[in-house]
Amino acid sequence: MSLALGEALEAMAGFPEIAPTDFVRRGLLVIAPHPDDESLGCGGLIAACRAAGLPVSILIVSDGAGSHPGSALFPPAILAALRQEEAIMAAAVLGVGASHVHFAGLPDRSVPMSGYEAERACERIAALAAAADVVAVTWRHDPHGDHKASFALARAAVGRVPGAGLWEYPIWGLTLPPKMALPGERPRGVRVHVADHLPAKRRAIAAHASQTTALIVDDPKGFRLTPEMLARFDTEWETFIECPL
Ligand SMILES: [Zn+2]
C-alpha cells in the first residue's frame, strides 16, 4: 500500500477535532529528535496539559550540535550547551520544569537506530512512558534521519509499556512534494485544539533563538527556520497520527 503525501495531508485535515484533555488523560511524553521539534509540533498540547495539571515530560534525543557546522563562535560543545538551555527555557514557557526535560545526548545528524546507545535511549523512553498515556514522536515519514531514528526508538520503547499509546506529529514531512508516494495506509489520528495556548507556543518556539534568529552570525549556511516553515505550525490545532503498535 502507498499513498501520495497530498492524500495524507487531506486525511489529516479531516481528522476529528478534540480537546487536549480528551486526548491526554493521565500524562504526556514528548520525544523530540532536536531541541525545537517539541515546541513546533506539540507546544500547544504541552501547554494545555500543564494548564490542566497533567504531568508532561520531554525527551530531546540528539544534542543539536549539528545545526551550525561552520560556526567558529559556536563549536559543537558550545552549541549543544546553548541548545540545551534554549530547550529548558522553551519548556519553562510551556509550564514544564527543568527536572522534566531530559536529554539523551545522541549525535545530531547520526542518531542511531540500533546498537548500545540506541538501546539505552529506548530504555529511557520506556521508563518515562510508564507515566504517560500519550507518547508523541515525530512522523515516520519526516525526511530527516534523526526524525526517522527517533520514531524507531520510540516505537520499540512504547511497545514495551502497557497503557501508553504512540502518536506521530509531522514536522519536515509537511514540506515534501505533494505527489510523493508514501508507503503505508491512509493515516488516522486527531486534531487537538490548542488555540488558547498559541501565544505560549509562539514564545516557546522563539526561545530556540539559535534556530529562529541570526544569533549565530558566523555561519550563513547554518540552519534557520524560515517564516514559511514557522507559519505551518502557527495554527489553532496540532495534528497527531495514531501509530498502531
Ligand atoms: Zn528536528
From TrEMBL:
Position of the signal peptide: none
Name the UniProt record assigns to this protein: N-acetylglucosaminyl deacetylase, LmbE family
Species classification: Bacteria, Pseudomonadati, Pseudomonadota, Alphaproteobacteria, Hyphomicrobiales
InterPro entries: GlcNAc_PI_deacetylase-related, LmbE-like_dom_sf
Originating organism: Ancylobacter rudongensis
GO molecular function: hydrolase activity, acting on carbon-nitrogen (but not peptide) bonds, in linear amides
Pfam families: PIG-L
